[in-house]
Amino acid sequence: MDCYGHNNGSYVYSCKKCGAWIFQSLGCNSRLCSNCGKRHADQWAYSLSKKMFQIPHRHFVISVPNVIWPYLKQDRKLWKVYMDSAIDTCNDYFPKLMRKHNAKVGIIVIFHPFAKDMQFQPHLHLIITEGAFDKSGRFIKQEFVPARGFARSWQYHVSMNLQKAGVSNELFTYTFKRYDGFYVWVHKAGRIRQPKLITRYLGRYVRHPAIANSRLTSFDGNHVSFFYEEHKEEQIIRHDVTMEADDFISALIQHIPEPQFKMIRYYGSYARRTKKIYKSYLQSSIEQTKLISYGVKLPDKILKRT
After folding, report:
1. Which terminus of the chain is more solvent-facing, meaning fewer CB atoms within 10 Å of its CB: N or C?
2. Rounded (to 5) percent helix, strand, coil in the chain
3. Structure confidence by residue, pLDDT tens digits, 217-270
4. What are phi and psi of 290, to 5 degrees?
5. By the 8 A CB rule, do 107 and 244 touch?
């Protein structure tokens, strides 16, 4: 509530010509803040877009049934098991491409603990390269949308890994009987082709604050009111929610991760130990393409190598 208030101070500017004064208030600079969190999200998305390969990517959203959510909420050590299960699923479902060319798919996994209503609904965002890199650094393009089979593989791996981590076997006996694959959502506009679009896309769907100021409608000192929109059958349904202030704060801070926990993890060709190899090759190819388009003649040795 005090964000951009007088208690945080401000910069004061004055014009020597017209005598006008401008007061620029300072924010709290917290990632949790509904004001400043948006700025952190934009900065993060821009930074990530600079680190990503300049190739098409796919955006997946995967989750588990709501009967499993309480276990993840109670034991936060399971969050990493949850994220690693997504990688086991990718390694299981994309073996042909990796075996044939001994290639590595680039995968970025982002843990997202909340839904639009601020309730704890843990799900994962996967940013996957549309293809893989072989040992020589050559990118092998392959467009795939493995939603149905991926859902079954995701159910198997996350269930097995959570059982090994101590979650009740009876729970997954129930889910295997009821579900034929866990939730996998592939956005119809989920193909990210241009680097400029990556910043906007990821900032909107992945790292935004739990709630934005524009969704807060009122606060009377005891109760907070906000709204969220649900997209259902091409219709937008608005839901208005009113909570006591303490409950609102509890709903907000439950999404803060433990210290040093990495909400974003990089695997495959995006792993730290291998990323530099592929990135340097790819960036050099991009720069050479630009030079050729400008009419610059490159040596034959360089052209043969690429």
Report:
1. N
2. 40, 25, 30
3. 999 989 999 998 887 767 888 999 999 999 998 888 888 888 888 888 888 888
4. -65, -45
5. no
| E-state strands within the chain | 10-14, 21-25, 57-63, 104-114, 120-133, 139-141, 184-192, 216-219, 223-232, 235-244, 264-268
> Is the whole model's pTM more than 0.90, yes or no?
no
- Residue 212 and residue 250: Cα distance in Å, rounded? 16
Place of tokens 């945080």: 8
DSSP annotation of 74: H
Reading the block at residue 17, the tokens are 């010509």
Tell me the C-alpha distance between 126 and 129, whole Å.
10
With the C-alpha atoms ordered 148, 149, 152, 156, is the resulting torsion angle positive or negative?
A: negative
Token reading at 61: 């959203």
Q: Is 117 helix (H, G, I), strand (E, B) or coil?
A: coil
DSSP state of 256: P
